[in-house]
Amino acid sequence: MSQARLAPGVVPGRLDPHELAANFVDVAPPLDDHEARVAADRCYFCHDAPCVTACPTSIDIPLFIRQIATGTPDAAAMTIFHANIFGGMCARVCPTETLCEGACVRMEAEGDPVEIGALQRYASDGLMAQPGHPFRRAEPTGKRVAVVGAGPAGLSCAHRLAAKGHDVVVYESRPKPGGLNEYGIASYKAVDGFAQAEVDWLLAIGGIALRHDQRLGRDITLDALRAEYDAVFLAMGLGGVNALRAEGEERGNVLDAVSFIRDLRQASDLTALPVGRDVVVIGGGMTAVDAAVQARLLGAENVAIVYRRDRSQMGASRHEQDHASRSGVRIICNAAPVKVHGNGSVVEVEFAYTAVDPDGGLRLTGDRFRLKADQVFRAIGQRLDGAPDALALDGGKIGVAGPGRTSIPGVWAGGDCAAGGDDLTVTAVAQGRDAAEDIDAHLTGRPVEIPG
Amino acid sequence: MADLRSNFIGITSPNPFWLASAPPTDKEYNVRRAFQAGWGGVVWKTLGSEGPPVVNVNGPRYGVIHGPDRRVLGINNIELITDRPLEVNLREIKSVKRDYPDRALVISLMVPCDEDSWRDILARIEDTGADGVELNFGCPHGMSERGMGSAVGQVPEYIEMVTRWVKQYSRMPCIVKLTPNITDVRKPAEAAMRGGADAVSLINTINSITSVDLDLFAPQPTIDGKGAHGGYCGPAVKPIALNMVAEIARNPATRGLPISGIGGVTTWRDAAEFMALGAGNVQVCTAAMTYGFKVVQEMITGLRDYLDSHDMDMSDLIGRAVPNVTDWNQLNLNYVTKARIDQDLCIKCGRCYAACEDTSHQAIALKPGRVFEVIEEECVACNLCLDVCPVENCIDMRELAVGEMDLRTGIRRGGYANWTTHPNNPMAVKAAE
């Protein structure tokens, strides 16, 4: 046993390299050929299938599953990619239990859906492992489009625009493309550098230039982009993190969950990554679960998620909550932080239980408790930072109408930075795709192809 | 507890489950294992004439049709009759029968279509202690090209002739095994009866090509780039076999001719169905080749439970469904049903809707919330919706009472009337007044 396992404070190397390697393996190993055939056979090929309706990218799921069942997984992959070029990542990170699999009629029949996510991964991985890129670009249109942000929304948009013959330049503020696929998703959901491999594969269509370390408002401006390009698509995500608004949150080791997840994803040596012995995560979404579970996997002894409302209102799905519980994370609901105690660094967090007023508002009760904590992660949502002043906002995000049209002609937006999404990769992909179709129609007068 | 002891044309066995003449019964080792597992009898793999044995291919002998999860639905084979010396087979048959006197042991035979050949082989098997012979007039591949097997079974005159020889030169009960590769199975059965056969067994395998290798462009199983048709058997052929058994069972010319039912018997239920259509016992091969000899234990307990739960003896079961097998023109055209969907069981997959809307009578409505409802004004009661529904008992066919209005035709349901008296039938006979 590692000597550091029970060390107080935020220290690296609580677990030895073997334990860490075992903890961070693929959370859902891929299906082999036979498993895929067996899983595919369970699909009923429903009429107007509820799973398709439930998919934000409207992948023709019964069709691709039938293509797997009949021994043509590459055709299945093309069915997926026509609708969703990030089919590989979505197969890994989609909350399928609330989307396609939650809608599967097998749930009604026996409470056990067709393994749509695993089948999607089987087909998409198989095609992506082959050399080359399966899409060809249309004849050049001579049009140029700027995309801000190389996350799922931006690259989905860029790929479709490139496929339609436009030239695309993607501006990305970080050193690597991929957005939250690269920086914001738990390691065990996308192992072996999948996010970068997927981006490389996607860019192989050609016609997409990537410019790194280009932040809107710092290195580039919307006005300049509008002047240089025929259209602009904004997909820079949410750069800011909401504050706890609890006394003492400036104390040491009170951190953003997204930063922790990012550092973990980018770490080349997990034994060098520090983690607390007693970790408290505040929030109730997928980011909270990803941070809490990974803190456990790094060797934290006690990890608690504290959420201010009740369990049914958590952003994390029941499946994610159960995953956290199975990983040894304690989930405490109906409690909000009021004070971070400590001397320099955090030592304890004080919470008040909450109650719901008749008007639906949340209020703190006098019932309080403290949790021991040497590390605290904020996971209470992110906000848009640095949006150009000229853009009309809606609820703190860029306001859009229809397929991502902003208040400024020639400027579209999608993904987390745009209003109306649900902070899911798959939704961002759909918005990028649909904006690309709209941009194409706008630039060329061609009809829109939705979906796929 | 129901008594499963069987007496089929004087051949007794502790149960009606025999292994058919096929690879599983080719030698002593296998047959002893079969008897140890509980099989009531075996028909030993077909013996040929004395002399150099036949040879088999040295590549694959089987082609298979798979269902979900590689479940074997049908097997096609190109194996010939036994390729072991006659003396070895005879010695082994004698040895096994001596140790298992209570089990049925029948010898399958196939020799050239001349009187001397049949007289000779019958003399050779005389002292084996075997209980009977089965004449293999069914094998559709290899041997048929040499004027044997189904080449005989496709000519009723030859069947009658050879059967006569066998009854003339042997004291043993004689079962004639029929080929399904023929247009009217009643004709060879009648011929066997005329020749003096004690029983017929059917079906032998069906001419088939199971699949084509789409890289080699050759049928499977493929032997050095070529394939020949084989004989198809297993669960996939059961419906064909059931019909042929029933045709013989209800044919006035062959009524009462004992039948050994063969063709895709995989479970006790399959066996019970063959018996209900007139088979006195059943023979099994593919199920044993797929799962091993132990499957017979499920067949034994299953048939026993079924008979007990219905308070029937095996003799009550045999032939019980035969009177209900009739011709289409005897079906009651005034029998009216309507599909009915149980909304509590419905999982809203919509397969009934797709099937009815695209390929049938547009008699299912898709209502908001994916509620599927039968439109009785359109429903012809084809029952395709029930057939494609993945949920058992979710859709059933409600029978209209006599006098109840059929909303599709606007006619109240009448009493029994069939096509022979229907006004649309130009050949209609006047109904009895």
From TrEMBL, chain A:
Gene Ontology molecular function: any one: iron-sulfur cluster binding
Domain FAD/NAD(P)-binding, first and last residues per copy: 144-432
SUPFAM superfamilies according to UniProt: alpha-helical ferredoxin (SSF46548), Nucleotide-binding domain (SSF51971)
Domain of life: Bacteria
Segments forming domain Dihydroprymidine dehydrogenase: 22-128
Pfam families in alphabetical order: Fer4_20 (PF14691), Pyr_redox_2 (PF07992)
Alphabetized InterPro entries for the sequence: DPD_II (IPR028261), FAD/NAD-bd_sf (IPR036188), FAD/NAD-binding_dom (IPR023753), Helical_ferredxn (IPR009051)
Protein name, UniProt field: Glutamate synthase (NADPH/NADH) small chain
Organism: Paracoccus sediminis
UniProtKB/TrEMBL annotation, chain B:
Alphabetized UniProt keyword annotations: Iron, Iron-sulfur, Metal-binding, Oxidoreductase
Coiled coil, from the record: none
GO CC annotation: cytoplasm
All residue ranges annotated as the 4Fe-4S ferredoxin-type domain in the record: 337-369, 370-400
Gene3D superfamilies, A to Z: 3.30.70.20, Aldolase class I
CDD domains: DHPD_FMN
GO terms assigned for molecular function: dihydropyrimidine dehydrogenase (NAD+) activity; iron-sulfur cluster binding; metal ion binding
Top-level taxon in the UniProt lineage: Bacteria
Known catalytic reactions: 5,6-dihydrouracil + NAD(+) = uracil + NADH + H(+); 5,6-dihydrothymine + NAD(+) = thymine + NADH + H(+)
EC numbers: 1.3.1.1
InterPro entries reported in the protein's UniProt record: 4Fe4S_Fe-S-bd, 4Fe4S_Fe_S_CS, Aldolase_TIM, Dihydroorotate_DH_cat
One Pfam family recorded for the sequence: Fer4_21
Subunit structure: Heterotetramer of 2 PreA and 2 PreT subunits.
Function of the molecule: Involved in pyrimidine base degradation. Catalyzes physiologically the reduction of uracil to 5,6-dihydrouracil (DHU) by using NADH as a specific cosubstrate. It also catalyzes the reverse reaction and the reduction of thymine to 5,6-dihydrothymine (DHT).
Family to which this protein belongs: Belongs to the dihydropyrimidine dehydrogenase family.
Protein name per Swiss-Prot or TrEMBL: dihydrouracil dehydrogenase (NAD(+))
Lineage: Bacteria, Pseudomonadati, Pseudomonadota, Alphaproteobacteria, Rhodobacterales
